[in-house]
Design goal:
Distance between the termini: 31 Å
CATH architecture: Up-down Bundle
Structural class: mainly alpha
Radius of gyration: 20 Å
Helix content: over 70%
Strand content: under 5%
CATH superfamily: YheA/YmcA-like
Largest sheet: none
CATH class: Mainly Alpha
Order of helices and strands: HHHHHH
CATH topology: YheA-like fold
Shape: elongated
Number of helices: 6
Number of domains: 1
Length: about 120
């Protein structure tokens, strides 16, 4: 491994550690733990996921209705209104915004979207 590669990988590791220490990341992890520890949130998640799976199957065979979609959206809204889930989603949004800013800072000198290039194999 060349010195440049080792240096870039070290910087990448340091960036990951720095991101892990961001207030946005810490808030996200705390909110995630709260959702995972909430029996009410877990029950609503299971119900929503089951309903979503049924809807997707119905859609695949052409039997999904607009009413089914509206019911699924209502269930999702109920899930998102739980205090633990609402905080989780807000924390996730704040973290996403911060990570997008980091991605832009990395991408600018490269003239390429670093996050997109790092995350995907095939670009159109």
């Amino acid at each position: 491994m060349s010195i440049e590669t080792a240096s870039v990988e070290t910087l990448g590791r340091e960036l990951g550690e720095t991101i892990r220490d961001l207030p946005e990341y810490e808030a996200f992890e705390e909110a995630k733990a709260a959702v995972e520890g909430s029996p009410e949130a877990q029950q609503k998640i299971r119900e929503f996921e089951g309903q979503r799976e049924e809807f997707m199957l119905a859609r695949q065979i052409g039997e999904a209705t607009q009413e089914d979609l509206m019911e699924l959206q209502r269930s999702q809204q109920e899930l998102h209104q739980l205090p633990a889930m609402a905080e989780y989603l807000e924390a996730q949004n704040r973290l996403d915004a911060r990570l997008e800013a980091v991605n832009e800072a990395i991408s600018e000198p490269l003239s390429v979207d670093f996050g997109e290039q790092a995350g995907g194999c095939c670009q159109d």
